[in-house]
Design goal:
single chain, 210 residues, mainly beta, Lipocalin, 1 helix, 8 strands, disordered N terminus
Length: 210
C-alpha cells in the first residue's frame, strides 16, 4: 500500500521542525489571549429640558347691543292689522292678518297668512268644486322690534293652517316687514322674504280692532 509523503518523513526531520511548530503555536495562543481594544459607543442619556407653555391671551369682548329695542306696550301698535297685495308675476293674492299684543312689557306678534290664485279683481277667496276655500295659509310667530319710529315684524316660525283641496301648496318663506305709521291710523310696511320672491313689496296695514 502506498503511504502519503507527509506521513513518511524521517524521525530526524520531524524532530528538527518541532521547535518551530511549538513556537508558532505559542505565538497563536498569545495572539488569542491578548485583549482586543474595541471602540465603545456611549449610550445617549436623555436630558429633561423644560418646555415653556405658550398661553394665548384672551380679551373679553363686550356683547354688542341689539340694534332694535322692543317697543313699549301702549296703543301705538297694539291691535289687529290687515293688509292685502296682488302679485302680478305669480297671479296670486296674499292677505296678512297681524296681531300685535302685550306680553308683560314687551310687544309680541303673530300673523295669519292667506294665499290664493286668482285675477287682480278677485279680492275674495275662490271656492273649490266641493265648496271649500281654494286657499293655502300659514300661522306665523314673529319677533317685534322698533327703532327710530320704524317697526319691524320678523317671522320666526311658520305652521301650515290652511290647505286647499284643489290647488297645490306653494310653500312659505319667512317674511320680514318694516315700516312706519302713516299719520292717518295706517301702517305702511315693506316686506322682504328669505326666498327672494319679495323685494320691498309694499303693504298698507289698517287696524280693524284693538
Amino acid at each position: 500500500m502506498r503511504v502519503s509523503s507527509a506521513l513518511a518523513l524521517p524521525v530526524a526531520v520531524v524532530r528538527s521542525i518541532s521547535p518551530y511548530l511549538l513556537a508558532s503555536a505559542a505565538a497563536g495562543a498569545i495572539a488569542i489571549m491578548a485583549p482586543v481594544h474595541a471602540t465603545i459607543v456611549p449610550i445617549p442619556v436623555p436630558v429633561a429640558v423644560p418646555v415653556h407653555q405658550v398661553v394665548t391671551r384672551t380679551i373679553a369682548m363686550p356683547i354688542p347691543l341689539a340694534i332694535t329695542m322692543p317697543p313699549r306696550c301702549d296703543d301705538t301698535y297694539v291691535g289687529t292689522w290687515v293688509a292685502s297685495t296682488y302679485r302680478t308675476e305669480f297671479a296670486d293674492w296674499h292677505r296678512y292678518t297681524m296681531h300685535l299684543r302685550c306680553r308683560g312689557d314687551q310687544l309680541v306678534g303673530t300673523l295669519d297668512l292667506e294665499q290664493w290664485r286668482a285675477g287682480p279683481s278677485a279680492t275674495q277667496v275662490p271656492a273649490c268644486a266641493d265648496g271649500g276655500p281654494d286657499e293655502n295659509g300659514e300661522y306665523i310667530v314673529a319677533r317685534v322690534s322698533e327703532r327710530d319710529g320704524v317697526l319691524r315684524v320678523d317671522a320666526v316660525t311658520a305652521t301650515p293652517r290652511l290647505l286647499s283641496a284643489c290647488s297645490i301648496e306653494t310653500g312659505y318663506s319667512l317674511d320680514h316687514f318694516a315700516g312706519k305709521l302713516d299719520g292717518h291710523g295706517g301702517l305702511d310696511m315693506l316686506n322682504n322674504d328669505e326666498a327672494g320672491n319679495a323685494h320691498d313689496r309694499p303693504y298698507h296695514f289698517h287696524r280693524i280692532d284693538r
